[in-house]
Design goal:
alpha+beta; Nuclear Transport Factor 2, Chain: A; 6-stranded mixed beta sheet
């Protein structure tokens, strides 16, 4: 089990690549909070607790054909707070097997206590991801339809 914030960040990336909600959730404290400050379609803006992280990622990954192929260009920034690590990353993802790869970017700020994530701020470029995967027009259309339904 990783203990340092840097080791936990590396384990987080391994779990993401393995598409393992269990491995990912096991990195969290039982009462952890995972926040997504940037709005994204069909995703809550936070998960409360390890089991909500597990269920949320299982549902999200089960509902998409997007797959991460590689996480690269990871830049890790240390903090003056020994519990905090900041990881800026770029990943290569595909929409379907054999599809052209697309770049996905984000920034992850983890607070790790006793080897477990107690708080995560996950700044993923969701709109950039939709654009890179060729899904932005459909997303914008769906948002337009949703907005007109609310009028």
């Amino acid at each position: 089990m990783p203990t340092s914030p840097r080791d936990v960040l590396a384990a987080y990336h391994r779990a993401m690549l393995a598409w393992s909600a269990d491995d990912l959730a096991n990195l969290y404290a039982p009462d952890a909070v995972h926040e997504f400050p940037f709005l994204a379609p069909a995703r809550p803006n936070r998960y409360h607790g390890r089991e909500e992280v597990r269920a949320g990622y299982q549902a999200a990954w089960g509902a998409t054909s997007v797959r991460l192929q590689e996480i690269h260009d990871v830049v890790v920034f240390d903090s003056t707070d020994p519990e905090v690590v900041i990881g800026q990353w770029e990943a290569t993802a595909t929409l379907e097997p054999g599809a052209a790869p697309a770049a996905v970017t984000g920034l992850l700020i983890l607070r790790v206590r006793d080897g477990l994530i107690v708080h995560a701020l996950d700044y993923m470029d969701s709109l950039g991801t939709f654009q890179a995967l060729g899904r932005l027009p459909a997303l914008l259309d769906s948002l337009s339809i949703s907005a007109s339904d609310q009028s």
